[in-house]
């Protein structure tokens, strides 16, 4: 994977850094795995704007991703590595031996023509999905379940990965991308390898219009609002605005909002780094 810096032939291209898309093998998605993707524009069922700064953007079709990897023991061949407009990671089209096709999140180093498989009796190779009970200690993993059969919810974005640190009884100790160390049941599935498109964090959009294409409208800074609109608003001229806080008055920058009585607190061994 690589990135390309464009020549500054226009103001919008002067600082633009684009993805090289070296890993992408096709620009035609599998039609049977597409679904409509309706945009809300930040409005609820009454048409009232409930989320600001959302609207517009290019029309997209949703790619149906197999997060459960529940087709155990059936080998599949990687047919293509594709771009997905709905996520930062690349996706891979799998052709199973029984004729079924499925999309999965592509791992770094996954190649077209490679055979991958999921299930309990699987070797720990890139792209294979297996339960944490069978993953060797120290292995880099991604697309991790939090409850057995739920489907992958952790470490799914571009370049994300976790590490299996230890196993004790029915729990495995996993170090997550945020830096948090957590207990997860050993019967949960995970995929071997880090998620693809690790260069995503190096991209630079170059112009405001590119954010509009992604469906993001311009955002107003709280400091320039009036006191009636935001706790940080008001003041004469360029006054700072006081302590950083949300529109509801909840402080940012280190203020803990997690409930002290949350049921899953007992599974967190070490909190994420600030």
Care to give the gist of this entry?
Helix content is 2%, strand content 23%.
The CATH homologous superfamily of the largest domain: Nucleic acid-binding proteins
In round numbers, the mean pLDDT is: 94
Span between N and C termini?
30 Å
Count the E strands.
Answer: 15
Count of domains = 2
Structural summary, described in words:
This protein has 274 residues and is an all-beta fold. The chain folds into two domains: 3-200, Beta Barrel (OB fold (Dihydrolipoamide Acetyltransferase, E2P)); 225-268, Ribosomal protein L2, domain 3 (Irregular), CATH 4.10.950.10. The protein is 2% helix and 23% strand. It is built from one helix and 15 strands. It has one helix spanning 208-213, and strands spanning 3-5, 17-19, 34-36, 61-63, 76-82, 91-96, 101-105, 115-116, 129-131, 140-142, 162-168, 171-175, 181-185, 189-192, 268-270. The chain has a seven-stranded antiparallel beta sheet, with no helix packed on it. It is globular, with a radius of gyration of 22 Å. The chain starts with a strand and ends with a strand. Residues 42-118 form the Large ribosomal subunit protein uL2 RNA-binding domain. Part of the 50S ribosomal subunit. Forms a bridge to the 30S subunit in the 70S ribosome. Belongs to the universal ribosomal protein uL2 family. GO terms for molecular function: rRNA binding; structural constituent of ribosome; transferase activity. It comes from Patiriisocius marinistellae.
């Amino acid at each position: 994977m690589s990135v390309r810096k464009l020549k500054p032939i226009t103001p919008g291209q002067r600082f633009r850094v684009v993805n090289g898309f070296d890993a992408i093998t096709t620009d035609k998605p599998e039609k049977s795995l597409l679904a409509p993707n309706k945009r809300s524009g930040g409005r609820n069922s009454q048409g009232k704007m409930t989320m600001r700064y959302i609207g517009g953007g290019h029309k997209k079709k949703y790619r149906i991703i197999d997060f459960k990897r529940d087709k155990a023991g059936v080998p599949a061949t990687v047919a293509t590595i594709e771009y997905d407009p709905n996520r930062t990671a690349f996706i891979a089209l799998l052709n199973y031996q029984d004729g079924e096709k499925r999309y999965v999140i592509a791992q770094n180093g996954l190649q077209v023509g490679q055979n991958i498989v999921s299930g309990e009796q699987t070797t720990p190779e890139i792209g294979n999905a297996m339960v944490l009970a069978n993953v060797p200690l120290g292995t880099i993993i991604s697309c991790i379940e939090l409850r057995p059969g739920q489907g992958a919810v952790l470490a799914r974005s571009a370049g994300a990965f976790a590490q299996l640190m230890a196993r004790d009884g029915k729990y495995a100790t996993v170090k997550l991308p945020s830096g948090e160390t957590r207990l997860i049941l050993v019967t949960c599935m995970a995929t071997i390898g880090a998620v693809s498109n690790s260069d995503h964090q190096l991209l630079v959009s170059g112009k405001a219009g590119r954010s509009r294409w992604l469906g993001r409208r311009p955002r107003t800074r709280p400091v320039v609002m009036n006191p009636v609109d935001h706790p940080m608003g008001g003041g004469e001229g360029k006054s700072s605005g006081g302590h950083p806080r949300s529109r509801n008055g909840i402080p940012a920058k280190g203020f803990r909002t997690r409930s002290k009585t949350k049921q899953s607190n007992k599974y967190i061994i070490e909190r994420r780094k600030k």
